[in-house]
Each structure stands twice: as structure tokens, then as C-alpha cells.
């Protein structure tokens, strides 16, 4: 890898995040497609791996990569959900569409391709839709936002990635609106700046 500085200890970075607008637009496009298929029974997650570089003064997000959700196909994922996640975070996670488990084969491919391009795997970005509006009646009192849920915090600590971005997306008055927040592996907020398109 071609990091400009040593990779920070797991979850310990406090560096600000500089996020490419083009990368953000690619994620928002994918998230909006998934959002269109959300039903009260099917939350439809959207997740991507963030790629870029560790500079001396920032985490620079310059690309992303999508992978398959192995939530129901990977034996480790099935076991983790059955023995730990559902007992700890509730029966909502019995829904096989809820939550994301990146296919390990895809993660290996993404890591190798990033390395070949001189990029680091910085972390992930995932969608929080306005599930309190779209989901079943029992979700009405639990609004999502760009803040991590307890399940997110568990995953952030488990992956050890220094950067975890949550993208909240809602549709109101015929338009999409979003907010973003960045978190380190300890669920501490990181400053987040989105690049400006100059043409």
C-alpha cells in the first residue's frame, strides 16, 4: 500500500475526512435505487467500501467499491446473526434483508484491486433510510439518522476500520434529502468535508 503515513491503530484516528463529491454522488445514486424498493418487510440496505489515502492531516476518500451482501449465504454471517446479533439487538435482525455482511471474497478482491492502484481501504459507507416512515408500525418511534445505531457501533468496533460513514436518506415532497456523518472505529465523530465540484 502507498499510505502517506502509517495506518492508524484500529478505531483510534481523529483525522478529518475529505470526501470526494463524485464518490458521494455514486453512492447516493446506488442508495436511491435501493430506496425505491424499500417496503415495510424489506429494508434494502446499501453499503460500499471507501478507498483512498491516509494523508498526514486527513483521510482522503477518492473512490468506493461495491460488493455483494453475504448476509444469508456466508456461514459465518448466519452464525453471527443467530448467536450474537439477534439476541443482542433484537428480532428485527432476523429479517434476512436487514443489515449487511460484505462477501469475504469481494472484500479480498476490493483490497487487492485498491492495493494495485495505490489506494488504502479506509472503511465503509452505508445507508440509513427514513425507516421510521417506510418500515412497519413498530419502527415508528425509532427514527434513524446519520448517527450510528447500537448495531452500527458493534459493527464499527468489529471491523476495526478507522472510517465509517453513515448516510441518512429520506424522500419528502417528491425530492431526496440526505445528511452524512463520519465515525471512527470507537464511534467517535470525525470532521467530514465533501469536495466541491469546480468546472
Concise summary:
This protein is an alpha/beta fold.
Number of strands: 8
Q: Which class best fits the helix and strand makeup? A: alpha/beta
SSE order: EHEEHHEHHEEEE
Number of helices: 5
Shape: globular
Q: What oligomeric state is this?
A: single chain
User: Helix proportion of residues, in percent?
Assistant: 25-40%
Strand percent estimate: 25-35%
Q: Give the overall average pLDDT.
A: 89
Uncertain parts: 1-10
Main sheet strand line-up? 7-6-5-4-2-3-1-8
First-to-last CA distance: 31 Å
Q: Top keywords for this entry?
A:
199 residues; 5 helices; 8 strands; 29% helix; globular
Kindly describe this structure.
The protein is 29% helix and 26% strand. With 199 residues, it is an alpha/beta fold. A hairpin with a 5-residue loop joins strand 6 (175-183) and strand 7.
Amino acid at each position: 500500500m502507498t499510505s502517506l503515513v502509517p495506518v492508524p491503530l484500529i478505531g483510534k484516528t481523529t483525522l478529518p475526512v475529505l470526501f470526494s463529491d463524485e464518490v458521494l454522488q455514486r453512492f447516493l445514486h446506488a442508495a436511491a435505487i435501493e430506496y425505491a424498493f424499500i417496503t415495510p418487510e424489506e429494508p434494502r440496505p446499501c453499503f460500499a467500501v471507501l478507498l483512498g489515502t491516509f494523508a498526514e492531516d486527513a483521510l482522503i476518500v477518492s473512490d468506493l467499491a461495491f460488493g455483494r451482501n453475504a448476509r444469508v449465504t456466508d456461514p459465518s454471517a448466519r452464525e453471527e446473526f443467530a448467536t450474537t446479533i439477534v439476541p443482542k439487538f433484537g428480532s428485527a435482525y432476523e429479517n434476512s434483508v436487514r443489515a449487511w455482511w460484505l462477501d469475504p471474497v469481494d472484500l479480498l478482491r476490493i483490497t487487492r484491486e485498491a492495493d494495485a492502484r495505490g489506494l488504502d481501504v479506509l472503511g465503509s459507507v452505508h445507508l440509513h433510510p427514513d425507516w421510521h416512515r417506510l418500515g412497519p408500525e413498530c419502527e415508528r418511534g425509532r427514527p434513524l439518522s446519520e448517527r450510528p445505531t447500537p448495531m452500527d457501533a458493534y459493527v464499527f468496533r468489529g471491523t476495526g476500520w478507522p472510517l465509517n460513514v453513515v448516510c441518512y436518506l429520506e424522500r419528502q415532497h417528491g425530492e431526496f434529502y440526505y445528511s452524512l456523518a463520519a465515525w471512527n472505529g470507537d464511534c467517535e465523530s470525525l470532521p467530514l468535508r465533501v469536495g466541491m465540484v469546480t468546472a
